[in-house]
């Protein structure tokens, strides 16, 4: 069954969990271990729904998707080498390593010269990561990250506009609420898989409701 792990794969996944936990356990930027844990849970759910996805590739890519991110490591090339070496030690085959690395490199090096994701496993893991950026969890992460950067929750004079440019958010005027418009509200339409899109609908609706309540409370209307 391609959708479930065999015994050997379970051992490798367990070792990989320890490896990732050691690297992310002290993170305070929203890429902490529990983010990985939730992305793995989302991934398992989506991989079962998307019946042709290889569970081992999906789970490994979910576990490793942040350990080469430039927000977390100084040298990405070095980090990729370290991940390769770890996987080799764990007897992950060359083909499997290639599949896993192509997913996590694509997800970490935002856009760039990367080839687009093209496998169902890549689509599943990217959707799983995006789901963790919306809904109740996404709201908590956004406000937490904003505080981490020393930014305010909301500035009423900073009105969200359609198609705000990246520069609008980089001139020091970013707020937690603006990030909803910059990113969170867009994710629903970027989902790759049908199962991911369905879950995103519910979480998106929650974001919209949250903003309504937020503005109403801001103006003492509720
Ligand atoms: P990931 O690497 O998990 O795809 P990011 O690194 O872009 O996501 O962001 C990690 C978390 O921090 C997300 O939940 C995201 O919403 C939040 N975040 C990123 N940028 C901002 C920002 N400018 N303002 C508020 N929250 C942000
Ligand atoms: Ni992530």
From TrEMBL:
SMART domains per UniProt: HDc
Q: Which InterPro entries match?
A: HD/PDEase_dom (IPR003607), HD_domain (IPR006674)
What are the HD/PDEase domain coordinates in residue numbering? 28-143
Q: What is this protein called?
A: HD domain-containing protein
Q: Which organism is it from?
A: Fundicoccus ignavus
